[in-house]
């Protein structure tokens, strides 16, 4: 078993990474000093696959779990779903010492985490991520929340889980498109923090695409180490944490203007990161060779790197980008790369540069 600690003083927690871990959910939760009553929050794809094992494990360890599900998909990451979860938690009489288990991908984790952060003014929660994206990124670091029509993640909180349990075996049933989506966040870590990791990904992409278990375990652990290191230094994004947002200003904008239906998160930020790389070349002199390596790695992962927007869509994209949380005094602050492995945050960029940059992706 691999274990990564997220260092946040008395709110520190571990990320456990191994095969066949779901069976240990109950025994791991027993170590946390939580109440007996708990709710698994999951979605309509994940619950039929994994809820039975999770419920049995919790019961065996003496917990009293109930299961709450909602329809799978990004459109469920909404205030409407939050309300429905609150109603069901009240119906099942969860108490202050009760806890929530988020069983699923990033949509489940972000939504269930927000519900945990706010129900009874906050009850404990445990993340059990079942997608690659959620194992390498969304289950770690405590950003929880939901979307508004106007923009991604506009309502939320910073609220840390008590434990993250990544069962590698759950990834076996993940559809290929979803798996690739997770690779976009993995590649991000190489670009923002770890040039040798980026080079390893270039070498090992064929193995990763075959879901080779050793390659996967290493990549998940390294991604979690990087995220834990960044979050440990800047939990609430007063500065450094913004680097985790590389490629997200344009990526989130694309998700919002397409009504959260066209692109998966990883697909949108694949395009966003290629655009950010092109922008970095112009603003920070990111070497052309690095831009090309970035483009090529996303492409080899099977992720989209092209986008074509008409004038109306470009206008809507700009409006969505202005709702980015990195906007300050009406100006978007970008995360840009100086070279692979090193980025700078808080970069002012003239909006005039965006349409020509997106043109290079058409
Ligand atoms: N909080 C954060 O720090 C953070 C970081 C990155 C992304 N996010 C958010 O995460 C969300 C994307 O997460 P995601 O990519 O996990 O999407 P998701 O939760 O929608 O899961 C993807 C799809 O796979 C299904 N699924 C999940 N696990 C499965 C499994 N093991 N087998 C078969 N099917 C399975 C789901 O039902 C869903 O249909 C976005 O909303 C994004 O904004 C949050
Ligand atoms: O954890 C972070 O910080 C991130 O930015 C991780 C991102 O991959 C993730 O998509 C996050 O949800 C974006 O947050 P937001 O603050 O830009 O909404
Ligand atoms: Zn992301």
UniProtKB/TrEMBL annotation:
Its main location: cytoplasm. Keywords: Amino-acid biosynthesis, Aromatic amino acid biosynthesis, Cobalt, Cytoplasm, Lyase, Membrane, Metal-binding, NAD, Nucleotide-binding, Transmembrane, Transmembrane helix, Zinc. Coiled coil: none annotated. One of its GO terms (biological process) is amino acid biosynthetic process. Residues 68-180 form the 3-dehydroquinate synthase N-terminal domain. Pathway: Metabolic intermediate biosynthesis; chorismate biosynthesis; chorismate from D-erythrose 4-phosphate and phosphoenolpyruvate: step 2/7. The gene is aroB. It holds the Pfam family DHQ_synthase. It comes from Pedosphaera parvula (strain Ellin514). GO terms for molecular function: 3-dehydroquinate synthase activity; metal ion binding; nucleotide binding. It is found in: Cytoplasm. GO terms for cellular component: cytoplasm. It comes from the Bacteria. Catalyzes the conversion of 3-deoxy-D-arabino-heptulosonate 7-phosphate (DAHP) to dehydroquinate (DHQ). InterPro entries: Dehydroquinate_synthase, DHQ_synth_AroB, DHQ_synth_fam, DHQS/DOIS_N, DHQS_C. It catalyses: 7-phospho-2-dehydro-3-deoxy-D-arabino-heptonate = 3-dehydroquinate + phosphate. CDD domains: DHQS. Its cofactor is Co(2+); Zn(2+); NAD(+). Zn(2+) binds at residues 185, 248, 265. Binds 1 divalent metal cation per subunit. Can use either Co(2+) or Zn(2+). Its EC number is 4.2.3.4. The keyword Membrane applies. The chain crosses the membrane at residues 99-120. Residues 182-327 form the 3-dehydroquinate synthase C-terminal domain. NAD(+) binds at residues 106-110, 130-131, 143, 152, 170-173. This is 3-dehydroquinate synthase. Belongs to the sugar phosphate cyclases superfamily. Dehydroquinate synthase family.
């Amino acid at each position: 078993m691999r274990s990564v600690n997220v260092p946040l003083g008395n709110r520190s927690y571990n990320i456990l990474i191994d095969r066949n871990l779901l069976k240990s959910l109950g025994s791991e939760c027993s170590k946390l000093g939580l109440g007996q009553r708990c709710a698994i929050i999951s979605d309509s794809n994940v619950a039929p696959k994994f809820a039975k094992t999770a419920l049995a494990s919790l019961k065996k360890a003496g917990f009293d779990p109930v299961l709450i599900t909602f329809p799978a998909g990004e459109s469920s990451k909404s205030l409407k779903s939050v309300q429905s979860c609150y109603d069901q938690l009240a119906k099942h009489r969860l108490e202050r010492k009760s806890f929530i288990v988020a069983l699923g991908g990033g949509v489940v984790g972000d939504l269930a985490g927000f519900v945990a952060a706010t129900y009874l003014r906050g009850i404990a929660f445990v993340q059990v991520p079942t997608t690659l994206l959620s194992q390498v990124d969304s289950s770690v670091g405590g950003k929880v929340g939901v979307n508004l029509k106007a923009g991604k993640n506009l309502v939320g909180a910073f609220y840390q889980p008590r434990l993250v349990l990544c069962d590698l075996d759950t990834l076996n049933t993940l559809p290929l498109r979803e798996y690739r989506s997770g690779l976009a966040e993995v590649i991000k870590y190489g670009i923002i923090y770890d040039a040798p990791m980026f080079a390893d990904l270039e070498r090992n992409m064929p193995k990763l695409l075959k879901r080779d278990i050793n390659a996967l375990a290493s990549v998940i652990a390294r991604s979690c180490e990087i995220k834990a290191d960044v979050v440990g230094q800047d939990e609430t994004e007063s500065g450094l944490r913004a680097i985790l947002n590389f490629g997200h200003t344009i990526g989130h904008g694309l998700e919002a203007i397409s009504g959260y239906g066209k692109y998966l998160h990883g697909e949108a930020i694949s395009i966003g990161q290629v655009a950010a790389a092109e922008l970095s070349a112009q603003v920070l002199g990111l070497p052309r060779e690095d831009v090309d390596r970035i483009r090529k790695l996303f492409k080899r992962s099977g992720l989209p790197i092209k986008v074509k927007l008409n004038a109306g869509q470009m206008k809507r994209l700009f409006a969505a980008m202005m709702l980015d949380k990195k906007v300050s005094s009406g100006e978007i602050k970008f995360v840009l790369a100086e070279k692979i492995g090193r980025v700078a945050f808080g970069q002012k960029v003239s909006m005039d540069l965006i349409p020509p940059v997106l043109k290079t992706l058409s």
